[in-house]
Each structure stands twice: as structure tokens, then as C-alpha cells.
Amino acid sequence: MSVITLSLAGLLSAGAIAHADDEGDDADGRTLDAVQEAVEKGAIKPFSELRDIVSRRFRGDIVRVEPRRKHGIFLYKFKVLSPEGQLVEIEIDAASGTILEVENE
User: What span is annotated as the signal peptide, if there is one (predicted)?
Assistant: First the structure.
């Protein structure tokens, strides 16, 4: 695991998520608060479980994570740098852990 991944994992597990919201159900801060509340209530999976799902399926280093809320559904977009140097974007449903979309695979 790279230093970037370790730093990112530490920030995310501490609740300081790097970025939020794509199409804006609400502002970034409120989305982050909503993510934390949803995890606490068990409505969505903790970041560590979602990270593990992505890591098992995709080789490489997670270099960015963006929690989002689209149409009331919590999603995470993971950006993974493959060993070959290709950036792969993975969108995952935060409630089910289902991978919804993969770009540049």
C-alpha cells in the first residue's frame, strides 16, 4: 500500500473525507455530515469495507476517493492507479457495496 493510500485511509477513517457531492443534492459539508450519520445508523457501509471491496477487485493504489450523493443515494468514486500506470475510476453504491460503473478499465 502506498504512502498516499495510507494517508488517505487515515483521513477517511478519521472522518475527514476529501471531497463530496457531484450533482449536488446538498453542499459539500452537509453531504459529509450525512455520510457520517448514515454510517452511524448502518444505512451505508463504512469506508473501510468499501475500500476493501475495491482493493480485492482492482490492483493498484487508491489515489483519490470522492463520496457523493446523487438523487439521495450515497456513492463513492474511487480512483485507482493501476500497476501499468492507468487511472481507473470505480463508482460504488455505499449502501450495498455494489460496483456500479468502471471507467478506463
Answer: 1-20
**Cell numbers standing for residue 89:** 475510476
Decide: 25 and 35 in contact? Cβ < 8 Å: no
Instruction: Please report the pLDDT score of residue 49 as a whole number.
Output: 97
Contact 77, 89 (CB under 8 A): yes
Q: How confident is the model at residue 1 (pLDDT cuts 50, 70, 90)?
A: very low
Amino acid sitting at position 87: L
Give the 3-state secondary structure of 60-99.
CEEEEEEEEEECCEEEEEEEEECCCCCEEEEEEECCCCCE
